[in-house]
Write a structure and sequence with these properties.
mainly alpha
C-alpha cells in the first residue's frame, strides 16, 4: 500500500503525552494514528447495506423516481 506524509498541528502537551503513551506501549505515533483512522468506516456505496438488501424488490421495477416524486407531491402537497 502506498504511503504518504501528513502534517498535523496539535498542542505541544498533547503531542508529548501521546509520544509517552506510544513509547510505553511499544508502538509509534504513526501506528497509533493509523490504527485510529482505520476505525473510521470507509465511505462505500450503500448498494450492499443491510437496509438496502431488505428493501430491494419491494417496489415494482416499473416505478420511477418521477413516480415517487409525484406520490410525495400528491401526499404532502
Amino acid at each position: 500500500m502506498e504511503q504518504t506524509k501528513l502534517t498535523v498541528r496539535v498542542p505541544r502537551d498533547l503531542l508529548e503525552n501521546v509520544k509517552l503513551y506510544a513509547a510505553q506501549n511499544n508502538t509509534t505515533l504513526t501506528k497509533l494514528i493509523e490504527a485510529y483512522l482505520r476505525r473510521i468506516p470507509a465511505q462505500a456505496p450503500l448498494d450492499d447495506a443491510p437496509i438496502v438488501r431488505r428493501l430491494s424488490g419491494i417496489l415494482s421495477e416499473s416505478i420511477s423516481t418521477q413516480d415517487y416524486h409525484e406520490h410525495l407531491e400528491e401526499k404532502y402537497g
